[in-house]
Amino acid sequence: MTALLEVEGLVKHFVAARSVFGRPTAHVKAVDGVSFTVEAGKTLALVGESGCGKSTVSRLVLRLIEADAGSVRFEGRDLGTLDATALRAFRRDAQIIFQDPYASLNPRMTVSQILTEPLALHDLVPSPRRRERVEQLLRLVGLEPRFARRYPHEFSGGQRQRIAIARALAVEPKLIICDEPVSALDVSIRSQILNLLRDLQDRLGLAYIFVSHDLAVVKHIADRVAVMNLGTIVETAEAQALFAAPKHPYSRALLSAIPVPRPPAKRSRIVLEGEMPSALNPPSGCRFHTRCPYAIARCRAEVPPLLADASGHATACHRTAELPPPENIVPADGGFSPTLEKLVAAFSGGAEGVARTGVDQSGTQPAVV
Ligand SMILES: Nc1ncnc2c1ncn2[C@@H]1O[C@H](COP(=O)(O)OP(=O)(O)OP(=O)(O)O)[C@@H](O)[C@H]1O
Predict the structure, then answer these.
(1) pTM to 2 decimals?
(2) Nearest atom (ligand 1) to Cα of 49
(3) Per-residue pLDDT reduced to its tens digit, 164-174
(4) How far is the CA of 276 from the centre of ligand 1 (A)?
(5) What is the CA radius of gyration of the chain?
C-alpha cells in the first residue's frame, strides 16, 4: 500500500551571503537529503534542536518553498508535477498549525470569520450552512459554539490553539503538520491539546507530522520518530523502539534530557559538550562528530549512511554496532528496557549501581549542567 506522504532526498540550501555582484558566496544547508514516509492516520514526529531544519522540511512538504532537490509524493503523486488546480486540492488535503496561535490568527476577525474563510475559499459548504459548520467545528475542538462571535484576544493560549486546529480541520484535511503546537503553552494545557490531537486523529483518521524539539512531548503522540541533526535524519524508528532503545548517540542525549518525575532508577543525563555547529558550515563526515562522545577518525572523514535493520529501525552512525547499551535511559512505558534490566542486574545494588556510573545521584531530575 502506498504511504500517504513519501519524502525522498529533500535538499534545501539557503543563500546566506552574496558577493558585491550578487553571486552566492555562502549557503545554509538547512535540509540536506531528508527522506521519510507518513502513513494515513499515523503520526511521524520530527525531532531535533532549534535550527536542525524541522520547519524547513515542513515548508518544503507543503510546497510553501521549493526544494533544490528531492521529491514529495502525496497519495502517490509528485507534488513537483502538480498544476495549479491539483496544487489547490493538495492545499486542502494538507494543513499546518503553528507554535504561536495568536500570531497565526487574524486579530481583526471573529472566530466565525476565521473558520468561515477556508470554507468559502475552497467552496466547501453553501453559505446558509456555514454557521452550522462553524458550530460543529468549535464543538469538535472542545469549544462552545457561542464563542464564534468573539475575537482571538478574548481567548487563552490553549483556546487559541483549539481555534487554529478548528481552522485547519475546516477543509477536512488528510494531513496536518503540527509545528511545535504545544511549545508556547503552559505545561498544564499541553496535555489537553495533545489529547485533543490524538482524539481528532482517531475520529477523523488524520495523519500528523509533529515537529518538536522536545522528545518528552513526542512520546505521547508519535507512532514513528525521525531525529534530525543539522539538516539530516540521524535515526528513525517506530516510537516504541526508539524510546526503548535509542541507537544514535544524539538520540540518546536528547532522550536522557527528559525529566522523569518518579524514575524507576537513578538515571544519567548525557551532556553534549561544545556548541551546536552551524548549518552554514556543518562538520565534515558525521555532522554530530564534534559533540559525540564516541567519535573516531572515521566519523570525521566519512558521512555515515542511514542504514535500517530488519524492523525498519534506521541509524546513521559508523559505530552503531559497537556502542554500549543505552544505559539507564527510561523508556516510553516508564519501565525498564530489557537492556537496562540487564545493566541494573549487573550491579549488585540495582538502581544504586547504575548511579555509580558517575551520573546524577538525585534520582529525580537530570543532572543540572
Ligand atoms: N529563509 C531562510 N534564509 C536563510 N536561512 C534560513 C531560512 N530559513 C531557515 N534558515 C536557516 O536554516 C536552518 C534550519 O532552520 P529551521 O527553521 O528549518 O530549523 P528548525 O529546526 O525548525 O529550528 P526552529 O525550531 O528554531 O525553527 C537554520 O540555520 C536557519 O537559520
Answers:
(1) 0.85
(2) 21
(3) 999 999 999 99
(4) 14
(5) 22
